[in-house]
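task queued by scheduler; priority normal; single chain, no ligands, no partner chains; default sampling; output format set to structure tokens
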Amino acid sequence: MSDTYGKHITLTLTGESHGPAVGAVLTGLAAGIRVDEPFMRNQLERRRAKGSISTARSEEDAVRFLSGVYRGYTTGTALTLMIENKDAQSGAYEAAKNLLRPGHADYTASVKYRGYADLRGGGHASGRLTAPFVAACSILTGLLRSKGIFIATHLAECAAVSDLPFSEEPAVLEQQIRSLNETAFPVLNDSSGRLMQDAIRLAADSGDSVGGILETAVIGLPAGLGEPFFGSVESELASLLFSIPAVKGVEFGAGFGFARMKGSRANDPLRMKDRQIVTSSNHNGGINGGITNGMPVIFRTVIKPTPSIYMVQQTVDYEKRCNAVLQISGRHDPCIAHRACVVQDSAAALCIAELLCARCGTKWQEDGAWNMD
């Protein structure tokens, strides 16, 4: 079983959705990095369930540091944090414990772990594990910000409602990123956001769920990060993005839109601006040959509809080995896409920190100016 990502900066996740707690162990951080707890709480607040468009499960998500932090700064040793599960209600799962939930990992986890897995609430495969993920990665997000690297994700599409796209104008894009990191519902257009929330409520009222498309922008990255082929920025990012529960597709830049283009349009012309090499378009999403080119890194993921729906579904009784029907109860999200935006930000921060460490060691983490040399 693999619970750990990274070679230079490693992150290990622990716990289950309905266990006593979930947690994370983060290594590879230099000593003396500020651990901004108010910022961490804000990041966790962005992923918390809220109102009628989310599950009724309400967790405090209070972070307790067990090691690696002293007087608000990293010590340079393994940073271990824990978040207690205080609002898990397992009764609904016990009543139908042998009925495999369609769309979930119940069947695959039962096979892999020979029936010993704790499947309540999805167990270790649950989105609950994104809480310690976001908490740990908030330290990296804050560190990247101090180096002029900013990340933001918006809900580009949900229930057939589209948001505005990211701007190609650098000043406007920077403002969009700052705005997204301060907004309650992660969209660039408030009217689109209201329509999305109405669509989510409508699906919830009928016992169904909806998915969405998340679009992320990263600005401030230098050119030269990543390796061709197996260490490409796309492959490193994709491996983390696909670890986010419910992500079923990833594209960079124009993505699948390239299939409808000719090379004359797909290529990004190179120009000089303020003594720097830039491109006049960004169809390739800031990456050429698996290596950053200094332009904004743009990528999108698709989040499938939440598999926990209240409609009657066909399934199998795992113990009796017979066909059955299932109608779930309990508390579930009619859409998780809006809550996943900060998780996607966190995945990007972890990947970028890993790429920087691969190129520069821990030197880039220290105070003051830094470069790629």
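post-processing summary
- The CA atoms of residues 360 and 372 lie 6 Å apart.
- DSSP finds nine helices and 18 strands in the chain.
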